[in-house]
Amino acid sequence: MRFVLPLAVILSLAALGGFAADDHHPTPPPPADPASGPTAAADGDAAARHARRTACIKEAKAKKLVGPQKAAFIKECVAAS
User: Fold this and answer.
1) DSSP state string for 1-20
2) Of 17, 27, 42, 80, which is least surrounded by CB within 10 A?
3) How far apart are CA 3 and CA 23, in angstroms?
4) What is the pLDDT of residues 22-41, one digit of tens each?
5) Model's pTM, two decimal places?
6) Which residue has the higher pLDDT, 14 or 34?
7) In whole angstroms, what is the distance from residue 49 CA to residue 24 CA?
8) 73 within 8 A of 65, measured Cβ to Cβ
9) 65 touches 36 (CB < 8 A)
10) Mean pLDDT of the chain
11) What are the DSSP calls for 32-75, one per residue?
12) Burial letters 20-50, b for 16+ CB under 10 A, else e
């Protein structure tokens, strides 16, 4: 009998604690649409810049430019687009 009362109290408190924990359900934020927003535009810009720079580097190689001439050509080529 002396174990029944403390056991009942412990189980009652555990049950109440469980109910209290269930009351706090944080709602997750809605998923962001990957096609919209600044990250999508930034990714597209970065990809376009990379493609343009790669084309300019290939052009500089075809013209057989080296050193400062090559760097200046690539800088001007990228800036022109």
Assistant:
1) -TTHHHHHHHHHHHHHHHHH
2) 27
3) 31
4) 556 677 767 766 555 566 66
5) 0.48
6) 14
7) 47
8) yes
9) no
10) 78
11) PPTTSSHHHHHHHHHHHHHHHHHHHHHHHHHTT--HHHHHHHHH
12) eeeeeeeeeeeeeeeeeeeeeeeeeeeeeee
Q: What is the pLDDT of residue 70?
A: 96
CA distances from 14 to 2, 27, 56 (A): 19, 25, 69
Do residues 67 and 77 make contact, with C-beta atoms less than 8 angstroms apart? Answer: no
Residue 75 confidence (pLDDT) above 70: yes
Whats the size of the chain, residue-wise? Answer: 81
Q: Which two tokens stand for residue 15?
A: 């049950």
